[in-house]
Amino acid sequence: MRRHFGIEFCAVVFFCTLLVGCGQNSNQPTANAPNVPAATAGVSPQPTPVSYDFASLDNLLERIARKHGGCALVVVQGEQVIYRKGFGTYTPDKVIPIASASKWLSGALIMRLVDEGKLSLDDRVSKYIPEFADEKANLTIRQLFAHTSGLPPEAGCRNDKRTTLERCAAEIAQVRLRAAPGEEFYYGGVSMHVAGRMAEVATGRSWNELFVEKIAAPLGMEQTDFFAYGPTGNPRPAGDARSSVDEYARFLRMVLQRGTVDGKQILSASSVTEMHKDQTGGARITYTIYERHAALDPGLLQARYGIGMWCEKVNDSGQLLEASSQGALGFSPWIDVERNLAGVLSIRSSFSLALPDYLAVKDQIRRTVPPQNGPFQASTANSR
Asked: How far apart are the first and last CA of the chain?
C-alpha cells in the first residue's frame, strides 16, 4: 500500500546518480548573493541589498555537504537574492532532476491555463478524455491536482517513456478507484498525469511545450523543462522536471510577488492565492510523504495540499505560513510567508535523508531573518 513512493524513489535515484557529474563542480562555497551577477543568480537584486549574518547557515551547509557530498541553496526575500552558495559537488546553477518539486511548476501551468480561460479547476475529466466514464467521469482538475480523486497512486504506463500522455491517460481510465472522489487524500502521481492530458486536449499542445511557453520562457528559466530523463511524449507532470536552484528560485520569486516578475504578469494574483489554498476539502489523510517522519515535526502529518504544493504550515485561522514541494532526490523548494521569503535547497540525497537537513536549514534561516510583510502575505490573509 505504501510501495509506490519507494518505487518512484528508486527510479529517480538511479537517474540522478548518472547525472551527478553534470554541471559545474566546486569545492568552495559560491559567492554570496550581493556579489553574484543577476543573470547568474536568476533574479535582479535591489539597489540597496539587505545584509544578514549567515555565518551559522554557512557552517550548517558545510556540514550537510560533507555528509551528503554536496548541496546548494538560494534564498530570495521579496525581489532580492539574500543568499546564494554551493558546497561540495553542487553549484546553484547545476541542473538536475527535481522529482516531485515538479508538482509546484505543474500547478502553476494549470493556473496559467485557468487564467487564459482554457481550463477551470472544476472541469470534469470526461469533458476532455471520454474514456473516463461512470464513477470516474466527474473527477475534477481540482481533485486530480489535490490528490483527492480516488485514483490509485501509481500506474505502470506513467513510467513508460515510449508511450504518450494520451495513451497513458486512456489506460488509467480503466483502473478501479481506490476511494470515492473527494473522500481521501492519498499522495501520488497518477491523478496529475490525467490532468496533464486534459491540458493537452484543451490547448492542442504537448505538456512540455505548454510549460516552456507559459511558464519557463516568460520567467527566463532557460534550462527548466519536463525532459529530465530525455525527450518523451509521456512526461510526468508529477515528477519529470529538471531545473537548478537558481532557476527555481526565480519561479518562487514570482509566487512571492503574486504572479509578477520584472513587470511580467505570469499568473494572476487570484490564481496564485487559489493555488496555495487547501484544496483537499477535508478529505481523510490516508497517505502522506511525512508519515514516517513524525518525530522530526509532528505537524507535518497534518499538512494539507493545494494545487501542486504542500500547505506545510498554517496558523490557527487557516492562513498559510509555509508552502513546499519537496522531491525524492533532495531538491526542496519552499516559501515562508511571514518573512516574504523563498528558498530552494538542493542536497545530493534522498527525501528521507535530506528532510532533517531541510528542516534544520529553514530553522536557521528563521533565526537569522526577521518577519517582513510582503504581497503574498496580504493576498492570503483571508484564504479561508
From this structure: 32
* 118 part of a folded domain: no
CA dist 136 and 186 (Å) reads: 16
pLDDT tens-digit readout, 311-363: 999 998 889 999 999 999 999 999 999 999 999 999 999 999 999 999 999 99
CA 268, 48, 31, 13: dihedral to nearest 10 degrees? -20
pTM recorded for the entire structure: 0.88
**What's the number of domains the chain is made of?**
1
CA–CA gap between residue 163 and residue 157 (Å, rounded): 7
CATH code of the domain containing 268? 3.40.710
Domain assignment present for residue 257? The answer is yes
As beta bridge partners, residue 261 has: 264
Nearest CA among 84, 32, 63, 75 for reference residue 360 = 63
Instruction: Tell me how far apart the alpha carbons of residues 214 and 298 are, in angstroms, rounded to a whole number.
Output: 37
If you average pLDDT over every residue of the chain, what do you get?
88
Q: Hey, what amino acid is at 201?
A: V
Report DSSP letters for 105-132, one per residue.
Answer: HHHHHHHHHHHTTS--TT-BGGGT-TT-
Burial of 367 (0-12, 13-18, 19+ CB in 10 A): exposed
Segment 25-79, tens digit of pLDDT:
333 444 444 334 333 344 444 445 578 999 999 999 999 999 999 999 999 999 9
For residue 44, tell me if it sits in a domain: yes
The residue whose grid cell reads 481506490 is 178
Domain membership flag for residue 288: no
Q: What angle do CA 225, 328, 212 make, to 5 degrees?
A: 10
pLDDT tens digits along 268-293:
999 999 999 999 999 999 999 999 99
- 328 is in which domain, residue-wise? 3-97+242-280+299-379
Element at 327 (helix H, strand E): none
Q: What angle do CA 3, 235, 17 make, to 5 degrees?
A: 60
